[in-house]
Amino acid sequence: MTGDHRGAATRPGSPGLSRLSLNQETVRQWSLDELTAGCAAAGVPGVGLWRDPVRSYGVDRAASLVRAAGLRVTSLCRGGFFTAVDPAERARALDDNRAAIDEAATLGTDTLVLVSGGLPAGDRDLVGARERVADALAELAPYAAERAVRLAVEPLHPMYAADRCVVSTLAQALDLAERFPVEQVGVVVDTYHLWWDDTVGDQLARAGDRIAAFQLADWVTPLPEGVLLGRGQLGDGSVDFRWFAERVAAAGYRGPVEVEIFNPALWARDGTEVLAEVVSRYQEVCAVPG
Amino acid sequence: MTGDHRGAATRPGSPGLSRLSLNQETVRQWSLDELTAGCAAAGVPGVGLWRDPVRSYGVDRAASLVRAAGLRVTSLCRGGFFTAVDPAERARALDDNRAAIDEAATLGTDTLVLVSGGLPAGDRDLVGARERVADALAELAPYAAERAVRLAVEPLHPMYAADRCVVSTLAQALDLAERFPVEQVGVVVDTYHLWWDDTVGDQLARAGDRIAAFQLADWVTPLPEGVLLGRGQLGDGSVDFRWFAERVAAAGYRGPVEVEIFNPALWARDGTEVLAEVVSRYQEVCAVPG
């Protein structure tokens, strides 16, 4: 995988941006055509894509579009939601994740981001739910590996533990990932989810080659209702991005740095302007060496 | 302090409720007169009070009211907000906390709950902020001890780390508390803040005599804007209360069990009805031996 990353780093015409990737949900107002054209024009070599818009566009067609623009897909968001107890529901989730792996392979990305899923209704057993995540990883990892796709377990902020993701810390994500070969299962380091945790420095050192993706968003308050769409533009909040970038680099990660901000205030603006702001903030708060 | 707790446990006429305390913010619609009358009538022997309503009522007068109703004050909420860098602001915070300690002593409670404070505006240094909390504890602990008041450091859910409390886990709270004599600084175990953390079982065992208060609220979603007033009635959400009660008991805690639910839906109802529901849910999900 580092080969791909070095490839991206040699892209000409984008000094300081060779590792930057724009996750498409940051500019939800943009179509895939606008996204690829916009990133190419701005010298941003990577895009992080989401399954729904890619499927609407057509997976093969999206893959061609990104390639034709001279870009690469740095990650596909997202598979996961593995915590159902009902066997039929579990089988459906696994099928859907195999489809997500196929889509990632078609898009040419080696990284499928996984959000584990929350507690089933009425269930209070976090430990059991995390074990079902491990079971699902065991079923999917070989299938993904055959397609050169790595499963990237994303710990989400503890405020999502009940309804979205029972994996809340980098330590928990690593506890899961380390049950599998390093090339098959990694972890996502997203500053928005992990910034508050005083153990995250040690866990980043522990993570080493397990780091499959590095995503940036800032923490701003007050949180909106439902707490999903309140991420901040880089530099607007509490996250010390340089601290994270240094530790992720010290762990050996040389891959893409993906900006993923869900915020209706950004979606209401001109996409080109938002991307320009992302680029300038990225350079300001945490530009990482190519 | 265990002497006090045993005293409460022998209160007659309230089988199974001898350790139950109602935090007044659970029934914000009630005046202090209504609160004390309501708890006495329901056989709930303890009340957790907040500084603002107590000061409006008069601290001495509130202390007499609670005593006359045959109740005890299990905790005073709250002191803290120690993270300012500005010396004048820090001095004001310390003065205010000395006043809170005096109020706790007047009310006859041995427990002052402390919420540490968030990051100062524009500050991203969580480690530094936590050190300023430790410095404040060092200044206040002897003053509190002279008045038989114990400082109870409350870890708040990580979603409050930026704007309210840089102490996010029980481990962090214990790291702070353990710098001081056990009788001077303890920790608050609140299920709402800690339920998601897979290290909390080990930390409860570590806590032992440091547990100064045990508070209950359930975790329900979706979270409301600002995430302050979305706590759930016991049994309505994801918290395994019995799991907590057993581990808190195993750690040696025999003190009050305080129900503290901030939720406008409860405030809109008849207080007597809310208290009856709290009592019945408490007995259902986690009644602890007297």
Describe this structure in words.
Two copies of one chain form a homodimer. The first copy, chain A, is of the alpha/beta class. The first copy, chain A, has a single domain, classed as Alpha-Beta Barrel (TIM Barrel). Helix content of chain A is 44%, strand content 16%. Chain A is built from twelve helices and ten strands. Chain A has helices spanning 2-9, 32-42, 51-57, 59-68, 87-107, 126-146, 170-177, 191-194, 200-207, 241-250, 264-267, 271-285; strands at 20-23, 46-50, 72-80, 111-115, 150-153, 185-190, 211-216, 218-219, 231-232, 257-259. In chain A, the strands form two sheets. An eight-stranded parallel beta barrel of chain A has the order 1-2-3-4-5-6-7-10, surrounded by seven helices. In chain A, helix 2 crosses helix 12 and helix 5 (87-107) packs parallel to helix 6. The relative contact order of chain A is 0.14. Mean pLDDT of chain A is 94; it is low at 1-13. The A-B interface holds A 119, 124-127, 130, 157-159, 161-163, 168-169, 172, 195-198, 219-227, 237-240 and B 119, 124-127, 130, 157-159, 161-163, 168-169, 172, 195-198, 219-227, 237-240. Chains A, B: InterPro entries: IolE/XylAMocC-like (IPR050312), Xyl_isomerase-like_sf (IPR036237), Xyl_isomerase-like_TIM-brl (IPR013022). Chains A, B: Residues 39-277 form the Xylose isomerase-like TIM barrel domain. Chains A, B: GO terms for molecular function: isomerase activity.
